[in-house]
Amino acid sequence: MTTGPLRLGGVPEHFNLPWRLALESDTLADLDLAWTDQPGGTGQMLTRLAEAELDIVSILTEGTVREIAKGLPATIVQVYVESPLQWGVFVPGPSALTSEAELDGARIAISRFGSGSHLMAYIHAERMGWSIDPDQFVLVKNLDGAIAAFAAGEADLFLWDRFMTSPLVADGRFRQLGVQETPWPSFVIAVRNDTLTGRTTEVGRVVDAVIAEARALMVRDDGPELVAERYGISLDQAKGWFASTTFAPRQAMEPDIAVEVLATLERSGLT
Description:
44% of the residues are buried. β6, α4 (116-128) and β7 (137-139) form a beta-alpha-beta unit. This protein has two domains: 6-84 and 184-267, Periplasmic binding protein-like II (D-Maltodextrin-Binding Protein, domain 2, 3-Layer(aba) Sandwich); 86-181, D-Maltodextrin-Binding Protein, domain 2, CATH 3.40.190. By secondary structure, it is of the alpha/beta class. The longest helix is centred in the C-terminal third of the chain and has 18 residues, at 200-217. The chain contains eleven helices and ten strands.
């Protein structure tokens, strides 16, 4: 069991605004909590969970299910975002590629092995009907790394949330050729097992507060404006995100979600 602050983490993106709002409110003011952004995404957070550097994370479903099945000492306590994540299929703005059908064999930028961008590349390839050679992957660590890899001509393809990347499409650095949705709820809340058993009440209060903030956010009149302002996307993009996003109620994850994830990863050779 950890002592000191409960260490929370998630990507610095709009999906995690409810965590920020919960921490900024008085609801959890009596708890010792420390949030750190995780720009490296799912792969980074899974490593930090394994190494006991984080206690509670807001994290992509597929990578978390995979690592727990492989022995990660963590538990998914809650589906966080019920709706699928809309991964944009991006190429560099100046690229000569004009359709997804031309991406077979492309050099694929991924943040880390085991990350969402890595796993979704296989799911995209499965949909398109081709296989991936591991040599196609270009490790870039995070979104900034993908921007740099595109600019340097070191990668041809990158999958990332289509709303957070909209400014890069607007300024011409990225060009979107398609959308690849996850075939399951996009985000879950995962907790290290020792934290879950040793600090159960605190964990429950954090999760309760975040889910309450998430569901309240979606009915706020100024919700789209707040997301646009905080995350640097246009108001139209923020409204599009609201229209396509559903946060889960407070309940445990259905077991069939993990079964579907593992079956899909097995078909891709990633279990």
